[in-house]
Design goal:
Helix content is 83%, strand content 0%. It has 7 helices and no strands. Helix 2 runs parallel beside helix 4 and helix 4 packs antiparallel against helix 5. The relative contact order is 0.09.
């Protein structure tokens, strides 16, 4: 069945919807063009068709802005998460060194290094959580400002930090692929 045949049976409102939202329905550009042609055949005023085309252009521009925003939030999240993961592994190494070392002068320095590393990790973890929440709010188009809940969640499962970061990166990449459209 050709593109013209597919759009011929649609109402004017459905044709307008196809023109504006063809990518959401998974239609190719040719379906959109066929819908434009069908509207012209039906003697829809050119001003109305131009209004629909303008709506499509505005929507496309908004989607491109959204994708760029998501991409920037993803990059920020990855940077913060890498610092947190590096700090996480450095903390594990410092803890092992503290358990193994018997030299009193080195053992007295290690707790300060651990505290400093933990402070940096917490700062970057809070930043990563913030980026993650903003990413999800933009991707889901919903107000998901549950920062305290997320912070408690991350703290409770901090030992699983590498898994959490990996899951979030996979989720974000999936959303980025979907919005790149």
């Amino acid at each position: 069945m050709g593109d013209a045949q597919k759009v011929r049976d649609l109402t004017d409102d459905q044709l307008m919807d196809v023109i504006v939202n063809f990518h959401k329905y998974g239609y190719p550009e040719t379906i959109r063009e066929a819908a434009f042609r069908e509207l012209k055949k039906r003697k829809i005023p050119q001003a109305e068709i131009d209004r629909i085309a303008e709506k499509y252009v505005v929507q496309k521009r908004d989607e491109q802005y959204e994708h760029a925003t998501l991409l920037e939030l993803y990059r920020r999240y990855v940077r913060c998460s890498l610092v947190v993961l590096a700090g996480y592994f450095f903390t594990v190494l410092l803890s092992l060194a503290y358990a193994v070392l018997r030299e009193p002068s080195l053992r007295s320095v290690l707790p300060f290094l651990l505290l400093g590393t933990a402070g940096v990790m917490i700062g970057f973890a809070v930043a990563a959580i913030g980026q993650n929440l903003r990413f999800r709010a933009v991707a889901d188009r919903a107000d998901t400002n549950r920062f305290l809940v997320a912070l408690v969640y991350y703290i409770l499962v901090f030992s699983f930090a590498p898994l959490i970061v990996t899951y979030n990166i996979v989720y974000m990449k999936r959303v980025l692929r979907r919005t790149a459209g």
